[in-house]
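Quick entry, no commentary yet.
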Amino acid sequence: MANFNAIFSVGNSLAQYLQNAYPPDLAKSFPCQFKLVSSTDIASEETTALDQVVSIFLHRVTTNENFRTVRVLQDTPNKQPVVFLDLHYLLTYWGSSAQAEQTILGWTMQQLQSSLILDSSILSADGGWDKTESVQLVVADLTLEDVLRIWDALGPKYRLSIAYIARVVRIDRAVTPPGPVVATRFTFQQPGAVE
């Protein structure tokens, strides 16, 4: 039952989790930062700011196919509308060393495989998460054509990337109170009619 900040919260929490888990002995050989980035950061011609960085890039947001027809749930306060989302990420290493690229991405995949559930211990509070909520990470199997289309659209040349889907992100907590009543519905009856 998170709010609309949950989308940012998932990516930011993922970056923080990987940064905190990155082992010091590996960091000595291959210094690296894990950073949530925007499409502008990647599409920029000047990508030197991303040197020795694993970027976490949200390239697509979709409605979860299993909950596509759900609009309102009974357990939501004031019958707020509910949205169930899947967040599609590309994790990309930016650097010039093949050894660093492959080692760091290998460690990243191993680390995420050991913790495929992002729960309240990992998810940041700014998303308004309930204590019982969690988000599942699944490796996405993108075709070569899909990957090349993404990189063609972004601008810079292709970089080795791994794709993940974070699902199911449930957004239903109202951030603003409902507005005042602006209309009332009346029913009219014919004079002399008996109910």
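second:
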Amino acid sequence: MSTSESKSFDALQESLVECRRCPRLVAWREQVAREKRAAFRDEVYWGRPVPAFGDPRARILVVGLAPAAHGANRTGRMFTGDRSGEWLYRALHRHGFATQPTSTTRSDGLRLRDVLVTASVRCAPPANKPTPTELAACRPWLEAEMRLLDRVRVIVALGKIGFDQVWKILAASNAAPARRVSFGHLTEVPLPGGRTLIGSYHPSQQNTFTGKLTEAMFDRVWERARELVHG
């Protein structure tokens, strides 16, 4: 990413955090930020769309679902302050992509190496379920990021929604295979230009508590991403 592209990426994130396209999401994120959870009653919640986080020259792009109501919607950083984030950054640290295994606040010193983390929807949705209309409204933000992140070689989609969101963006630019590939854990899709899309189960509490996603399974995702990037 050139200096001008880096400035464009920063400008994109500045515009994103002011977005109010989806009335239901705006109302919910702000209600949560006012009411708070008892454990965080002394904190000032972010309560806005959450920008991407990580290395703007990344070769690995991670696409999640949406900010958690009392996670990223509270802290203002992707996958920060909740159990899903604990799983994600612990795994990234194990594989050399993060400077530390914990992610608690925007000021905790965490830095990512060669990885940028973003999401399909940037505002916390009620019940963690964005509507199709909200996904469509938010898609241009991710599309713009993908266009600017010209070094990305691997896209890791966390969950089916993230996988589908990425696929729609690729299809719209004729960069997806002609045959639609179904989401699955460790599903691997070669893309034009030497890029690869990898599907992974989302590190949600529902998946990790039930054993649908184990740390060994999650490690294999990052091992494969590293293999594809480093050859």
